[in-house]
Amino acid sequence: MKNTIQYFQTLLHTAFALYFGQESEYASLEQIPLPENDLPVLWTGKQLSWEERLVLYLALMPHVSPQSLDLFFILNKNLDRPYTEFGGWKGTSHTGFLPTGETAAFLLALNSDEKRKTVVNLFNQDHWFYRENVLRLESQGAGEPFLSGKLCVSEEFLSKIFHDGNYRPDYSSDFPARRMETALEWEDLVLPYNLREEVEQITQWLEYGQTINETWKLDKFLKRGYRCLFHGPPGTGKTLTASLLGKKHGMDVYRIDLSMVVSKYIGETEKNLAKIFDRAEHQNWILFFDEADALFGKRTETSDSNDRHANQEVAYLLQRIEDFPGMVILATNIKDNLDEAFFRRFQSILYFPVPNQQLRYELWKRMIPEAWLDDRAEELLREAALIKLSGGSMLNVVQSCALQLYDPKAPRKLDLELLKNTIKKELEKEGKLVN
Prior knowledge:
alpha/beta, six-stranded mixed sheet, about 45% helix
């Protein structure tokens, strides 16, 4: 990084010398030798043009060496004001010089107006700077020149420099999603055999999907990405399965906070979702929409502006999900509440049932610590497995038992009466009849 900063400082001093007609070691900026370690190529994985490299250096300087841009604070003595051609803008708390498109044009074009067109092309939406979310010009005022926009580097690209590419945005109104984690492993996932096979197909795609498409040239016909629907009663493993899919394949799983996404104001829901999809576009993430029927509900006959607006939201979501190149998982307790147009867009629709007696026995065996059990453990586990509970409810029972058993002076064992009474309370809490 040190060589990169020194190179840019040399480039900037040379640009000022050439612009103001002062003595300079170089006749043009292109003559300045590039640093030995070509970091922009490493960061982008591309062979860069000289112009692209310079713009990247300029955009990164406020983050890596803000003092290197202080030369731009020089005043025009004739007018007692900054030079218009240098561009720049002032931040809210940052006191240094922040570059704009005009700053890039000054360095790239200097006294050549013909090169300004080249500069503008670098910030078009067709350029990979924009397409791959590296940098862009933002916040031009209405009617103001295009190059007056702020030269902004994306958080995603900065993560490649400061965090070795590990981009994990914080939860905020601009990114209403939280990263899901679990201490469990893939082997801890207890599912019915047929459901386990369907989940294995998803993991097969995560591992080999791109290779499969390229081998048989299926990418000509198939859209990118993979879309799943998980449906079934609460506590049956939908969220855990999504978390473990990410953990197994080294992918971050982000759970979308629908309370922050859905808005009563027209256009705001689409805008909030766009923030999530735009950030996830180039990331190896899984997007998880829990209780998806709240957002992806059935469209209704249009009788007023509210119906029309709700239908537009669903149509927008359909399009974004279909175009997303990664994995999207929707989870719902009631499949029939979803709009039918979603179903043909799912590659996998998986039903998560309440575990049967055999699976409940396996879950109890894994959840209940061995230290709680005595020589009648087998009887206790089999009796508990007779009672119909979801995995999530069983976890609640185990936690409640832990609170009742804990005694630092005299550790207690779990007996069948305590376990049954705790299960009874859990069933009553869920509003179920207790036999």
